Amino acid sequence: MADIIQLLPDHVANQIAAGEVVQRPASVVKELLENAIDADAKLIKLIVKDAGKTLIQVIDDGKGMSATDARLSFERHATSKIRTAEDLFSLHTKGFRGEALASIAAIAHVELKTKQEQDELGTQITIEGSEVKSQDVVVTPKGTSISVKHLFFNIPARRNFLKSNTVEMRHIIDEFQRVALAHPNVSFAMYHNGSELFHLPISNYRQRVVNIFGTKTNEKLVPVEETTEVLKISGFVGKPQFAKKTKAEQFFFVNNRFIKSPYLNHAINSAFEGLMKDGNHPTYFLNLSVDPKSIDINIHPTKTEIKFDDEHTLYALLRSAVKHSLGQFNIAPVLDFEYDPNLDTPYDYKDKAASTPTIEVDRNFNPFIEKRSSGKQITAFKKQTANNWDSLYVGLESKGTRSEHDFSEVEFESEQKTESLFKDQSSETVHSTYQLHNKYIVSTIKSGMLLIDQHRAHQRILYENLLKSMTVKEAVSQQLLFPLQLHFSSNELTILKQLKEDLEATGFIFSNFKNENIEIIGVPVSVPDSEVSIILEQLISDVEQEIPDSHFSATDLLAKSMAKSLAIKAGQSLNNAEQEHLVNSLFACKEPNVSPTNRTTFVTIDVDELDKKFI
What is the pTM of this model? Predict the structure, then answer.
């Protein structure tokens, strides 16, 4: 029988490896940025077009490569980071497998320009689908510039799996932020379709966080510092009142490498226990420094998961460090049984001397003088006569006589009694609905019983109303007496600008829309002022994650997101009129059976089913 096992050609092996390394454009961004960091660059530029589908270019001023190194960098398992297997357990660099450039070159058009500082001329290499097209000498500045064009050009099936530009751009920005946060000592700039999204100069860690997430972030940060033999913790956590509905601003860095760790995330959540509302997530930007020999970062293809030698110790240290910071900066509530509020001194008076009160006495004062021009004399007379109340009856007429002000014959006009036009049947009213556990509405039908989920039903009602308003563009807006001032990061502001027209069709009116601030002077009639920021944050989160699917329009996504935010929640009590209105409105919808996210809104239970329960 003929042999059936054979070695794969290099270009096929590279495409298979690319499946692990390059899942989307953001994967390319991550690998190229980390290579620039490893080259000791101090200025890195990221240029993206069409969310990375057309172009991803990274320019750095690092060490550069020689002509030989530039050619070898595209070979599989070619790396300058490790020499032996033991080096895997003392890594201080980002990329070390030697598969990144080889995998990227297998599925894209790659152009590399690089030059070392001591060389007069640099090297230019062009590769298409693992095939080297040219290698030339070129004039180029010190450092490396690598362009990746037409990603997945030779694998159309993989390209079809990419999401919309909005979602892919969100992932690219996430990777850019993770690298930029880990290295505040490096200057970064990011451009998308010719417009600058980020310009991050060299700064300290706090300034880097503020430059990425907006100036308002500065007042939300609480510093965390702890140094032990096992672990060094530095960074910031957000104040509990600024906790968000999403986990977008949660960053763990271990030895300047971004990681995801549900176990350590639980330590942060336990430190915030009792300080946040249910459903909110804390914000944190924490750097953990540990011995490289105590961790294994080679357990996941994307290197975002790390195995620790002693996770329990790290958990306890992290939890106590965050709790200590929250208590140290008076974020967490404390009990002080020896505290006396009477000893508090107002801030304006802390440097002023106490003044002795003076007493002024008018020795010529006579309370019986009839002169009433002075308010003080009248007050004194009242006080005097209040003690001698008998004198108040002096001069009154005798009991038998009647004065013109006698009230014995005063007549009061009786209020006319009118009967109701309809008889009061409140005691005889039979309600057709009943609320169960403040979550379900029970209603009777001819065949049996109807059980409605109030939250999903209200979502369906709001969704169809909002969709109609946005389609017809005749939404009713209520003007605000005081405009709402809301703050968003530059990326969130970009998303809201894309949705501005659809938001205005629902009833929102914007008067200012720039410089990370939004001013709203009108909101839809059904939206309370206090819910506006929650609605917009939820909307941004849904757009970033593109819930539920990329095939839906922006209008549909907006209607779904707003309906989810405004709908009646489980646990909210409804009176009978509200219950009946909800039931009637649900069955007036075009598709009352399911919610906007295709979940069942009601179930019916026949009488026969109930009868079987009693057999």
Answer: 0.69
CA distances from 8 to 5, 79, 133, 174 (A): 9, 22, 22, 35
123 and 241 in one domain?
no
**Rounded-to-integer distance, Cα 260 and Cα 250, Å:** 9
DSSP 8-class letter at 401: S
Q: Is residue 214 part of a domain?
A: yes
DSSP-assigned letter for residue 415: P
**How many distinct structural domains can be found in the chain?**
3
Do 189 and 253 lie in one domain? The reply is no
CATH of the domain at 283: 3.30.230.10
Long-range contacts of 341-349 (CB under 8 A, 24+ apart): none
Residue whose tokens read 């001698």: 388
Under the banding of pLDDT at 50, 70 and 90, the label for residue 427 is very low
Answer yes or no: are the C-beta atoms of 204 and 236 closer than 8 Å.
Answer: no
Does pLDDT of 524 surpass 80?
yes
User: Quick one: pLDDT at residue 89?
Assistant: 57
Assess if residue 411 is contained within a domain.
Answer: no
**Do both 453 and 318 map to the same domain?**
no
Last residue of some domain: 174, 200, 226?
A: 200
Instruction: Write b or e for each residue in 26-46: b if 16 or more Cβ atoms lie within 10 A of its Cβ, otherwise e.
Output: bbbbbbbbbbbbbbebebbbb
Give the 3-state secondary structure of 97-126: CCCHHHHHHHCCEEEEEEECCCCCCEEEEE
* Radius of gyration over every alpha carbon of the chain, rounded to an integer in angstroms: 36
Residue 590 sits in which domain range?
Answer: 435-604
The C-alpha atoms of residue 141 and residue 113 are separated, in whole angstroms, by: 9
Whether residues 465 and 563 fall in one domain: yes
Tell me which of 328, 347, 379 is where a domain ends: 328
Is residue 550 very low, low, confident or very high in pLDDT (cuts 50, 70, 90)? very low
Pairing of strands 232-238, 221-227: antiparallel
The H or E element that residue 403 is part of is none
Using DSSP, state whether 522 is helix, strand or coil. strand
214 and 134 fall within a common domain: no
pLDDT reading at 508 higher than 90: no
The yes-or-no verdict on residue 459 having pLDDT over 50 is yes
The tens digit of pLDDT for each residue in 182-224 reads 999 999 999 999 888 899 999 999 999 999 988 888 888 999 9
Amino acid letter for position 92: H
For residues 420 and 353, the model is more confident at: 353
Q: Are residues 176 and 225 in the same domain?
A: no
Q: Pick from 179-193, 294-308, 423-437, 468-482 the range whose average pLDDT is largest.
A: 179-193
Do 209 and 165 have their domain in common? no
**Among candidate residues 385, 31, 381, 57, the one with its CA nearest the CA of residue 189:** 57
- Co-location of 130 and 212 in the same domain: no
| 51-65, 194-208, 282-296, 384-398: least confidently modelled range | 384-398
Q: Is the pLDDT at 549 greater than 50, yes or no?
A: no
Residue 44 falls inside a structural domain: yes
